[in-house]
Amino acid sequence: MHRLRVDKLLVSRSDPLRGDLEVEGSKNAALPLLAAVLLTAEEMQLSNLPMLQDTKTMLAILAGMGVEYSQRGNCLSLEAPKTVEIFPCTRLARAMRASFLLAGPLLARFGEFCIGLPGGCQIGERSIDQHIEGLSALGARIETVDSQIQAVAPAGGLTAARIHLSVPTVTGTENLMMAASLARGESVITNAACDPEVVTLAQCLIRMGAKIRGHGTRTIRIEGVRSLGGTCYSIPPDRIEAGSYLAAVAATGGRVRLTGIRPFVLQSTLRQLMQAGGCIETTDDTVKLDMKGQRPQPFSLTTGYYPAFPTDLQAPFMVLATVAKGVSRIEETVFENRFHQVQAFRQMGADIELQSDNRAAVVTGVDKLVGIQAVASDLRAAFSLIVAALRAEGETEIRGLEHLDRGYWSPELKLAALGAPIERVAG
Ligand code: EPU
């Protein structure tokens, strides 16, 4: 039986956060790699897997489909049998948009799928039209019946296609790359996402025997192969988790050394922190941020497709603007509805004006925020509430932690280790 999580976080104003922090494996790299397990009959070993709620949901879906796995710490061995249940559990699939990543592998190896329309954070329209159009171009016949998307591949399997994406969708690119890996002929995806998580998936697929070129650019070429084998792969560090903690430290004027991170994938984030007054030093696998006890400087920030500033860090970075010395402007260009945090920030005393049909925010920094009782609305907004609470007078109570736990592993422990007055309590 599932225990209903009704925990809440109690967070008080913090002195500057200080210390070292190790970054977890990337959630958004782990989820497509778990889906890729369906592409092979051989054993896959994934290490450095972040043991988050989203990972557990994906594992539960796979297990329900017949995938066998064993776990040692954060290393997993997984094996998909010759036949699987092509109808993933609707309740679990709805809990997480990334469940639709199962579509490409199911279609490519088993010739069909039936998946409930995906759910996930309510941060915009989040259409899956590009996934559907791409899979159709590869030969699939797809229809939606009673909120279920059903698809079948032609008798001889999928055939290669030229696919132009109208938006460089991350999971769309991943889904199509996986499907095309087992299609007949060479597929070309143009206007593809070039995010590090797409590159990670391509590298893992190549180790499984796929023939992929151009990953990390806007044009990806995939020459289909007959079958793919198993491999061992280590999940790279989570750039969004890293950026979230950098925002928390910056908001408190603190200093931190992140370890186990590739600074290269954080370039736009580090530039933004420098604009906010942070001193940054990097090595091949560490990032140091020092705010020297100062309040952030105002900045202008525009989210965009990689390598632009990630939309997933927009909410935590808005906290820096709310307490900066001056006026900042933040523009959200990826999702239509990703300013959910604003209402709570205003209650805390922030001065935020939304413009351009809620796609831009003008934030005038204030001297003081105050603690409130808040309910998290989505994953990244949840973390941003913690960051704001670290700057607020008095205590902030944060509920809705089911959102937070989807993507952050015990943030209260990690922040407490940096000196934050934060605890998770029941009820
Ligand atoms: N879009 C379409 N049609 C499609 C697909 C996307 O119009 O078929 C639009 C979306 O509506 C959105 C934009 O394209 O406006 C970008 O969406 P994308 O498909 O790239 O997002 P996603 O693949 O669903 C992944 C991450 C998100 C992250 C976005 C953007 C995973 C599992 N999820 O989502 O992560 O915000 O890319 O970088 O990789 C998170 O971790 O908090 C999170 C939401």
Give the arrangement of secondary structure elements.
Layout: E1 8-12, E2 18-22, H1 27-36, E3 44-47, H2 53-65, E4 68-72, E5 75-79, H3 90-94, H4 103-110, E6 112-116, H5 129-137, E7 141-145, E8 148-152, E9 162-164, H6 170-181, E10 186-190, H7 196-207, E11 211-213, E12 219-223, E13 232-234, H8 239-251, E14 255-259, H9 267-275, E15 279-282, E16 286-290, E17 300-302, H10 314-322, E18 327-331, H11 341-347, E19 351-355, E20 360-364, E21 369-370, E22 373-375, H12 379-391, E23 392-393, E24 395-399, H13 401-407, H14 411-417, E25 422-425
Parallel strand pairs: 2-14, 3-13, 9-10, 17-18, 21-23, 22-24
Antiparallel strand pairs: 1-24, 1-25, 3-5, 4-5, 6-8, 7-8, 10-12, 11-12, 14-16, 15-16, 18-20, 19-20
Helix pairs in contact: 1-2, 1-7, 4-6, 5-6, 6-7, 8-10, 8-12, 10-12, 12-13
Helix content range: 25-40%
Strands, total number: 25
| pLDDT < 50 runs, ≥5 residues | none
Strand order of the largest sheet: 22-24-1-25
Helix segment tally: 14
In the CATH hierarchy, the third-tier topology of the largest domain is known as UDP-n-acetylglucosamine1-carboxyvinyl-transferase, Chain
Question: What is the CA-atom radius of gyration, in angstroms?
Answer: 22 Å
Q: Work out the count of structural domains.
A: 2
According to CATH, the homologous superfamily of the largest domain is: Enolpyruvate transferase domain
Structural class: alpha/beta
Bound molecules: uridine-diphosphate-2(N-acetylglucosaminyl) butyric acid
The CATH architecture category of the largest domain equals: Alpha-beta prism
Mean pLDDT: 95
- Main β sheet profile: 4 strands, mixed
Distance between the termini: 19 Å
